[in-house]
Amino acid sequence: AQKITQTQPGMFVQEKEAVTLDCTYDTSDQSYGLFWYKQPSSGEMIFLIYQGSYDEQNATEGRYSLNFQKARKSANLVISASQLGDSAMYFCAMREGISGGYNKLIFGAGTRLAVHP
Amino acid sequence: SAVISQKPSRDICQRGTSLTIQCQVDSQVTMMFWYRQQPGQSLTLIATANQGSEATYESGFVIDKFPISRPNLTFSTLTVSNMSPEDSSIYLCSVEWDRGRIGANVLTFGAGSRLTVL
Q1: Are A66 and A94 spatial neighbours (Cβ–Cβ below 8 Å)?
Q2: What single DSSP character describes residue A30?
Q3: Which CA distances in Å does B34 have to A68, A86, B8, B110, B118?
Q4: Closest-CA residue to A108 (of B92, B33, B41)
Q5: What residues of chain B, 64 to 83, have a C-beta less than 8 Å from chain A?
Q6: CB-CB contact of A47 with A80 (8 Å)
Q7: 3-state secondary structure (DSSP) of residue A82
Q8: What b/e string do you get for B22-33 counting C-beta neighbours within 10 Å, with b at 16 or more?
Q9: How far is Cα A54 from Cα A52, in angstroms, rounded to an integer?
Q10: SS3 annotation, chain B
């Protein structure tokens, strides 16, 4: 079964509007972490935001916020006030079992976001 | 977070040849990770490289095809051996950025090495 599911292969948004990128995950662990990365066309991976499974508040980092719904196992990324430079691939990722040593990061298939002027 | 330099940034290779990708980190790190991103796909972990021990490979990846060296705490190489067009991918080196909170360590990536095999 897919551990991380991103159901939107592509999204577009008008500049200055908000957009939500979906991510659902599958784990039986109680301790896990969720991450979002941005990959522009140049190829580098840029960390955006982190949410721990025990965090009571939704994570925010500038224009990025994570809409964490634990019961639904979803961790959607919300980008407010979209900018042209936000056009990129966005990957959701999860690390399971974070309380017991290192575990690898598992990535979703990604969502390509296009911001239109 | 650490600064990671990878080279080459891109290369075009002939089928059957091998290419070594270098990864240099500006600080000492325990673990270094090598990922592959095939065209239009997500990232897949190839192996974890610890200094002073054999790399740990993920299912589907073998040492003969992807030998890894880790001679010190700031450097690693990944070799893609006997290349075929299916090996055309971006190969990314990464290290953990300790944010001082259990489980919240973030992977920091190099810019990647984009290989095209003809």
Answers
A1: no
A2: S
A3: 29, 26, 15, 10, 23
A4: B41
A5: none
A6: no
A7: coil
A8: bbebeeebebbb
A9: 5
A10: CCCEEEECCEEEECCCCCEEEEEEECCCCCEEEEEEECCCCCEEEEEEEECCCCCEECCCCCCCCCCEEEEECCEEEEEECCCCHHHCEEEEEEEEECCCCCCCCEEEECCCEEEEEC
**pLDDT tens-place string over residues B13-64:** 999 999 999 999 999 988 899 999 999 899 999 999 988 888 999 999 999 9
Helix-then-strand count for chain A, H and E? 0, 12
Query: Distance between CA atoms of A58 and A66, rounded to whole angstroms?
Result: 6
Collect all residues with Cβ–Cβ distance below 8 Å to A22 and sequence separation of at least 6.
Answer: A6, A7, A8, A74, A76, A111
Q: Across the interface, do A44 and B43 touch by the CB < 8 Å criterion?
A: no
Residue with tokens 């941005």: A38
A-contacting residues of B 29-68, CB under 8 Å? 31, 33, 41-45, 48, 58
- Judge if the upstream peptide bond of residue B8 is cis by omega within 30 degrees of 0: yes
Query: pLDDT value at position A99?
Result: 53
